[in-house]
Specification:
heterodimer, A: 309 residues, alpha+beta, 7 helices, B: 541 residues, mainly alpha, 0% strand, globular, binds copper (II) ion
């Protein structure tokens, strides 16, 4: 029986250190409390003749000192835990994006190259991976203990999470948010492969058309092209170069066009209207399913590369 | 021998009418406390049976119980019964109800009829929830996360929700009753700083009852609207926001955690000075720690949502505030240790339970520090680590405190002494069984086993079997008091008025107290813990 959890992501090393630090603090405090309880229980039992001497009268000083000591230690732990969390919040720009669509009770994984898998995630080692996740029904949670990451997967919005696997192997994937009957069956494998094996896996796992290419077809089928490719009677912003850039909104604020923004623009266009455009884009909520949405987003993503390179 | 006829004022509350009617229509806070005690004992063993089946299922990786459906309904039932029908009411409405007027030198609570109505509301809510849980049950978990509970779950979600909703009014009424009583009915000379800490903790608890429970009620109403009429509040398909539910739910449920533990902290602060025969160390700090817990408790709900998708700013803020709320709890532990220092410590059963409480509560609190640290919570959230953490607080802490209180005040409430040696043995066995059950769960959680799993990967089996083995010890330990306390009712020795040498007003009444509590209203001239200073031998009581 193992009592330690193998670590397979370089991003998790700091978490492990933090856990160790917390353990040390806890053991020290626990040791102190238990030790004092034991010593007092023996030394000051009611029939022990030990001289109790004068009572410590200045309770105020004790109170202030242990309150301050606790505050300082706690504040240190807070800073420590938060720094790591904040640092791990923003994925690096070069991360490999993989889309995850959860539903009762399976994980559907979509790779940019068009490869699809269910309850398994194949990824290359030593590469930052960013997951863009959503759910078709209830809240699920993507949890890979060996990477020290987990994040709730919500219906109706994108959640992202990233990590950098650094050990080849197969690791548990758990759903850790209770999601109904087969919650404990909503598990799978995360397979970390060498770059070579990964390339091999990509070619043998089919895919055919890339996600973006499939998205391009959908872009025409859902009638987006009619407005967004210009030439028509309506005025709509060009989506070329949109991904990742700042967008001025009609309410005066600015948004960064990430996956979540693009998703919201399609599903709830009225919630963020691009400055100097009319809010005429129809909502596609309940029209486009999560799977197609992933393709459209990937397509719009690919338009950014078109502009830059 | 001639029969001595007692004046009407000097009849014990237990002999003041024996008909069922005299109990069910009583407005005596002491009798209502007994009614509550019988009810929550029933709920405790019901919820406990569900727990036993949960531990039984987890003996093997694929689950001993055939269907995941059944397992899910079991842990939902366990959570709902234990939280709303045992832990939340446990100490306040039983021990609190009984002792509060006695500790204040009052005749009864401020609103005796409201007190009885509270019990009926509690029972009505309980009946409603029980009906639903037994006619099929529900599989939402006690947290009712949407949209699972509103649009995907099966079973009588609405009935359970209505049950909890109704019992919420019982909490609100009790809270109101306690607050008014503490403000208005203190005996002459009983200033705020002469109140026993237990009274202060009931006061803090009551404030949370009154302020937080309505939010739960509103949340449940919204949930019902979505479930029954498909009004989109929480389900994004209907235009709702799933996170809104969690915010509302935890806005109640986090303070509710303190409803469940504050009275326990109060009980222990009562017991430690009496059995150490020493004044409570830092009385004012302990008192204000309770009050500040009740206040800060309202601002930490987001620490249940660090991985839920709430904003980065919210997570960081809630992490900081969660560390703040832990400070007053730490202060209490240090003050108890300060009280023990240079005391004359006796280890009667209540004190053993209190010691168990300090140990387990400290462990529960320290593991809370792990979960408040953002990066650590990302790893540990929704695993067995969390399950172990809150069971250390709720069961190791609160249930130990409940038993400590029960043993401490049992002689007063029933007029009978229980078999001391059996009581001590039960306390030790509980401590042991508890740790064997829940300590392995910390490791399981750290190793990554998610909670609410009907089946699990085989590498987790050894620790799960250990945990289940501990649960059998724990179950035996819980059955012991049921047996010997019941036995003591019929065969126990008569209890003296003040078996432990306590200084509170409740000990100045006979055991069991008169219906009218005090024949003459007591006048208070000193604090509740002014034991003779050490050096002077305490007179043996
Ligand atoms: Cu799930
Ligand atoms: Cu799940």
């Amino acid at each position: 029986m193992r009592l330690t959890l193998p670590l397979a992501a370089s991003t998790g090393a700091q978490t492990d250190l933090l856990l160790l630090g917390l353990l040390a603090v806890s053991l020290a405090v626990l040791g102190l409390v238990f030790w004092l309880m034991l010593v007092y229980a023996i030394r000051y039992r009611h029939n022990s003749p030990v001289d109790r001497g004068a009572l410590a009268e200045k309770s105020f000083r004790f109170e202030i000192s242990w309150t301050v000591a606790t505050l300082v230690i706690f504040f240190g732990l807070f800073i420590w835990g938060s720094t790591i969390y904040v640092r791990l919040y923003q994925p690096p720009a070069n991360a490999l994006k993989v889309y995850v669509v959860a539903k009762q009770w399976m994980w559907k994984i979509e790779h940019a190259g068009g490869q699809r898998e269910i309850n398994a995630l194949h990824i290359p080692v030593d590469t930052p991976i960013e997951l863009i996740m959503t759910s078709e029904d209830v809240i699920h949670d993507f949890f890979v203990p060996a990477f020290r990451v987990k994040r709730d997967v919500l219906p109706g919005q994108y959640e992202t999470m990233w990590f950098r696997p650094d050990r080849i192997g197969t690791y548990h994937l758990f759903c850790s948010q209770f999601c109904g009957t087969a919650h404990s069956n909503m598990i799978g494998d995360v397979v970390v492969m060498s770059a070579q094996d990964y390339a091999g896996w990509l070619t043998t796992s089919g895919g055919g058309k890339t996600l973006a290419a499939q998205g391009k077809g959908l872009f025409i089928r859902y009638g987006c092209a009619g407005c967004h490719l210009g030439g028509g009677t309506v005025r709509a912003p060009s989506l070329v170069g949109l991904y990742g850039s700042p967008v001025p909104l009609s309410d005066g604020s600015t948004a960064i066009a990430d996956d979540r923004y693009i998703r919201d623009s399609i599903m709830q266009p009225k919630s963020q209207v691009v400055a100097s455009y009319e809010p005429i884009m129809p909502s596609f909520a309940n029209v486009i399913g999560e799977d197609d949405l992933v393709r459209l987003v990937a397509y719009i993503h690919s338009l950014a590369a078109e502009k830059h390179g | 021998m001639s029969q001595i006829v007692l004046p009407q004022s000097q009849i014990s509350y237990l002999s003041d009418g024996v008909s069922l009617r005299s109990w069910l229509l009583t407005t005596d806070h002491k009798r209502i406390a007994i009614l509550y005690m019988i009810s929550i004992t029933f709920f405790f063993f019901l919820g406990g049976s569900a727990a036993a089946l949960i531990r039984y299922n987890l003996l093997v990786p694929q689950g001993m119980i055939q269907s995941a459906e059944t397992y899910n309904r079991l842990f939902t039932m366990h959570g709902i019964i234990m939280v709303w029908f045992f832990l939340v009411p446990a100490v306040p409405v039983t021990i609190g109800n009984f002792m509060l007027p006695l500790m204040l030198g009052a005749r009864d609570l401020a609103f005796p009829k409201l007190n009885l109505i509270s019990w009926y509301l509690f029972m009505a809510g309980g009946a409603c929830a029980l009906y639903a849980l037994f006619s099929g049950g529900i599989d939402t978990g006690w947290t009712f996360y949407t949209p699972l509970s509103s649009n995907y779950a099966q079973g009588h979600v609405a009935a359970v929700v209505i049950g909890i909703f109704i019992s919420g009014f019982s909490s609100i009424a009790t809270g109101l009753n306690f607050i008014v009583t503490i403000h208005r009915l203190r005996a002459p000379g009983l200033t705020w700083y002469r109140l026993p800490v237990f009274v202060w903790s009931l006061y803090s608890t009551s404030v949370i009852f009154v302020l937080a429970t309505p939010v739960l009620a509103i949340t449940l109403i919204l949930l019902l609207f979505e479930t029954l009429f498909h009004v989109g509040v929480f389900d994004p398909r209907l235009g709702g926001d799933p996170l809104l539910f969690q915010h509302l739910f935890w806005f109640y449920s986090h303070p509710a955690v303190y409803i469940m533990i504050l009275p326990g902290l109060g009980v222990v602060s009562e017991i430690i000075p009496v059995f150490a025969r020493k004044e409570l160390f830092g009385y004012k700090f302990v008192v204000w720690a309770s009050v500040s817990i009740a206040v800060i408790a309202f601002f930490v709900w987001g620490h249940h949502m660090f991985v839920s998708g709430q904003s980065l700013f919210a997570s960081v803020t809630f992490s900081l505030l969660s560390y703040f709320v832990a400070v007053p709890s730490a202060i209490k532990v240090f003050n108890w240790l300060g009280t023990l220092h240079k005391g004359h410590i006796r280890f009667d059963a209540p004190m053993i339970y209190a010691f168990g409480f300090i140990g387990l509560f400290t462990m529960g609190g320290l593991t809370g520090l792990f979960l408040a640290a953002l990066a650590a919570d990302v790893e540990l959230h929704d695993t067995y680590f969390v399950v172990a953490h809150f069971h250390y607080i709720m069961v190791g802490g609160m249930v130990s405190a409940y038993f400590a209180a029960l043993h401490y005040w049992w002689p007063k409430m029933t007029g009978k002494m229980y078999p001391e040696m059996l009581a001590r043995a039960a306390a030790l066995l509980m401590f042991l069984g508890f740790n064997v059950t829940f300590f392995p769960q910390f490791i399981l959680g750290y190793l990554g086993m998610p909670r609410r799993y009907h089946a699990y990967p085989p590498e987790f089996q050894v620790l799960n079997v250990l945990s289940s083995a501990g649960a059998t010890i724990l179950a035996a330990a819980y059955l012991m008091p049921l047996v010997y306390l019941t036995f003591s009712l019929f065969r126990g020795d008569r209890a003296p008025a003040n078996p432990w040498g306590g200084l509170g007003l409740e000990w100045q009444t006979p055991s069991p107290p008169f219906t009218i509590n005090f024949v003459v209203t007591p006048v208070v001239t000193k604090g509740p813990y002014e034991f003779p200073k050490p050096g002077i031998e305490p007179s043996d009581v």
